[in-house]
Amino acid sequence: MVTGPALRVPRKVAAASLVGTTIEWFDFFIYGTAAALVFNKVFFPSFDPALGTIAALGTFASGFVARPIGGALFAHFGDRVGRKPMLVYSLLLMGAATVCIGLLPGYATIGVGAPVLLVLLRFCQGLGVGGEWGGAALMAVENAPDHRRGFYGSWPQVGVPLGLVLGTGSFLVLDLTVSESAFLAWGWRIPFLASALLIAVGMWIRLTVAESPVFTADAERREASRLPVLEVLREHPRIIFLAAGSFLATNATFYVSSVWLVSYATTELGYERSTILGANTFLSASDIPMILLLGLLSDRVGRRPLFLVGMAVLAITAVPYFLLVGSGNIGLFILGGLVVQACRSAVYGPQSAYFAEQFPTHLRYSGASLAYQLASILGGVAPAVCGLLVLWTGSLMSVAAYVAAMALVSLACSWAMTETLRRDLVSVPDDGAGAAVRS
Length: 439
Description:
Elements: H1 8-37, H2 39-43, H3 49-80, H4 83-103, H5 107-110, H6 113-142, H7 149-177, H8 180-185, H9 190-206, H10 213-221, H11 228-235, H12 237-267, H13 273-301, H14 304-325, H15 330-356, H16 361-393, H17 397-416
Helix pairs in contact: 1-3, 1-4, 1-6, 1-7, 1-9, 1-12, 3-4, 3-6, 3-16, 4-6, 4-9, 6-7, 6-16, 7-13, 7-15, 11-16, 12-13, 12-15, 12-16, 12-17, 13-15, 14-15, 14-17
């Protein structure tokens, strides 16, 4: 039984989830920024510059291949032994892999072993972040008051833009304070090595948080599933794939703008590197209040309407967005980015609560994680796909068409899902039909 003021415990757990996810996503995103800016030179120096950038972004995508595996692995134990231990282990795995990347010699020192080890460590990062989201989201949602699950569930979601702000901001500071040669030689390693301190802080915070009361209550009244990942795939396949599809465009466009555009805008559109890093830092910061406000709004109007509006507007504005990006004007670049950020936040704000409410407690970690991480596979390859599209067509509009198509897929999947706003987390139906419990 949880003691203390009713609202204090959810806030503490949500804050702990936010700190941990911020650190994990900081580690994950500094790789993306480094892949866009320096990895082609450090690990693929013998490639043509354009192909070297695509190869570097391809190693970035390997982390997304690992994310569903990490999601399944951590979810198995998260549904069997608890949410809290998985949050600790995922943070440790991510931290170790990130520091090792910061210490990894380049191609000039150890040859082909450098990119091979880089891919392996990126894969380990993917395993860690794959297990992170489900545990953090469920700890926040399962500890929240029933009428505020959308709001408290949005707190760990804020870890994504906050991690990106810290990651992009760290590279911006380096870009402004060290020379190009120093940046290539050792400057890019500093954010990776600095994550060791952040991991220590995150571990201390997470170890002070109690286990989810919803999980504890459910574990007392039923035996844990032997293979929760297989069971949820067997009993709830429809909602897993619909939820994954509903998140596809949000996930993919995030990496298009935060990774691929960093490279393309600085090499092809004439933007200064510090200007783009500064713009992305500002745009990521703007995500934070939008995610919290839209998570709170979902507690009033529902989760599904926000998903539908966000994806419909994204599909409509994809072409105008890339016209603004291609203008070469940083003000128009930011304006277009704010519209896209709002569309993504309409999904990302209520997502923790919406995905958690789809599944019964004993399969919730597995179901929510699989849905989230399946979408991450296509999202993770989006930067490389964008690079290939522009290489083949020579037009930024091919990327706009790609984004619009993904938004339409997510819109269709969101339309097929059912509202869950009034659902009781303790008594979610086990029939896999997604029927909502309404008040």
